[in-house]
Design brief:
The complex is a heterodimer.
Chain A (H helix, E strand, L loop, with lengths): L3 E4 L2 E4 L5 E7 L5 E8 L3 E10 L2 E4 L6 E3 L9 E3 L8 E8 L11 E2 L3 E5 L1
Chain B lengths: L3 E3 L4 E4 L4 E7 L7 E6 L6 E6 L3 E4 L2 E6 L4 E6 L8 E9 L1 E4 L3 E6 L1
Parallel strand pairs in B: 2-11
Antiparallel strand pairs in B: 1-3, 3-8, 4-5, 4-9, 6-7, 7-8, 9-10, 9-11
């Protein structure tokens, strides 16, 4: 198994550009999520999905869109990049939904995004 | 109040020392808890899971106190290779992480 894969590993954008960060997992996990990590801020949840066709907002969803058309893929779209979106983005997946319980989350290697 | 809170440190300890980190959570319905290790510029990786009162794996012990709503991570006989950031996590509707505690083990 490849686990959780993310592309690209690095990206530089200009303000106003749009792009899609790709995330895929081959573990048949229902739950997938996107986090951004900034110095001193820890991991902040952007969007998450509890299964194909179902997505929901996390703590910091503004400026980002997601979709979940398949179990395997969970792309994150930046609509109009801003310097405040400069960050490291991690995609994660786990076997089951949460609702007070929860399974280990597996993380992808991250995408380092710089917006000029 | 944040869902999960950690002391960010940094903790600087000599080799061989014992160090403990605490993490408090606010959702009393959370049933499982996790400690992750994150090396610089890498993704977090699971260190330990805690489902009941505690869990031990070699030099690492994780404990859960439901009454006071905190989990702790104890590292005994610290090694240089233990230097990293340690994140606690508490699922509860969403998967919440603490901001992480930085540990540096000094020769």
């Amino acid at each position: 198994n490849a686990g959780v894969t993310q592309t690209p590993k690095f990206q530089v954008l200009k303000t106003g550009q749009s792009m899609t960060l790709q995330c895929a997992q081959d573990m048949n996990h229902e739950y997938m999520s996107w986090y951004r990590q900034d110095p001193g801020m820890g991991l902040r949840l952007i969007h998450y999905s509890v299964g194909a066709g179902i997505t929901d907002q996390g703590e910091v969803p503004n400026g980002y869109n997601v979709s979940r058309s398949t179990t395997e893929d969970f792309p994150l779209r930046l609509l109009s990049a801003a310097p405040s979106q400069t960050s490291v983005y991690f995609c994660a997946s786990s076997y089951a939904g949460l609702a007070g319980g929860g399974d280990e989350q597996f993380f992808g290697p991250g995408t380092r995004l710089t917006v000029l | 109040r944040k869902e999960v809170e950690q002391d960010p440190g940094p903790f600087n300890v000599p080799e061989g020392a014992t160090v403990a980190f605490n993490c408090t959570y606010s959702n009393s319905a959370s049933q499982s808890f996790f400690w992750y290790r994150q090396d610089c510029r890498k993704e977090p990786k699971l260190l330990m899971s805690v489902y009941s009162s505690g869990n031990e794996d070699g030099r690492f012990t994780a404990q859960l106190n439901r009454a006071s709503q905190y989990i702790s991570l104890l590292i005994r006989d610290s090694k240089l290779s233990d230097s990293a950031t340690y994140l606690c996590a508490a699922p509860g509707g969403q998967f919440y992480f603490g901001t992480g505690t930085s540990l540096t083990v000094i020769p």
